[in-house]
């Protein structure tokens, strides 16, 4: 059973997929939000192309997949025309004023995102062509994904405030 108080949610069960961790794919041909169901095994149905690079963009505390600065990052990657852009939205688990819950819920967001990452690599995507970009707590989610992967990530870019970590 999840622990819910006020508007805060603290997930007790780490089970993916989870309705409060969502993935959206944007491609140069389909620059609009497409919800990706991790159980759907053929990502090509969403416009995903194996020949392209992949990027996971993960928002931080009190963010969403559609807020700035995340939307700016999405648009920058799409403008290059050679990326499949996956937006990770765990906003229901990371909203204000629930910082302590968000810290706990990062584990679930990381586990579910790692599941999608694994689906990509099983479809033939190379780790060298996949980047995880996280803002604030999203950067921690990128790092925590590795706990759930047998094939480790090649590149993680984390940003907090005006400091960028590579």
User: What strand line-up does the widest sheet have?
Assistant: 4-3-6-5-7-8-9
Largest sheet: 7 strands, mixed
Order of helices and strands: EEEEEHEHEHEE
Q: In angstroms, what separates the terminal alpha carbons? A: 37 Å
CATH-derived topology = Rossmann fold
By CATH, the architecture is named 3-Layer(aba) Sandwich
**Average pLDDT for all residues:** 91
Helix content: 25-40%
Domain module count: 1
CATH homologous superfamily caption: Alpha/Beta hydrolase fold, catalytic domain
Which value, in Å, is the CA radius of gyration? Answer: 15 Å
CATH class: Alpha Beta
Tell me, what's the shape?
globular
SS-based class: alpha/beta
Helix count equals 3
Low-confidence stretches: none
Strand proportion: 15-25%
Strand tally is 9
Domain Lipase: 12-156
Keywords: Secreted
GO biological process, one term: lipid catabolic process
Pfam families: Lipase
Give a verbal description of the structure.
GO terms for molecular function: lipase activity; serine hydrolase activity. Residues 12-156 form the Lipase domain. The protein is α/β, with parallel strands linked by helices. The radius of gyration is 15 Å and the shape is globular. The protein has a single domain (3-159), classed as 3-Layer(aba) Sandwich (Rossmann fold), CATH 3.40.50.1820. The strands form two sheets. A seven-stranded mixed beta sheet has the order 4-3-6-5-7-8-9, sandwiched between helices. The protein contains three helices and nine strands, in the order E-E-E-E-E-H-E-H-E-H-E-E. It is 26% helix and 25% strand. It has helices at residues 70-79, 99-122, 137-145, and strands spanning 3-5, 8-10, 22-26, 34-35, 53-58, 83-89, 130-135, 155-160, 163-165.
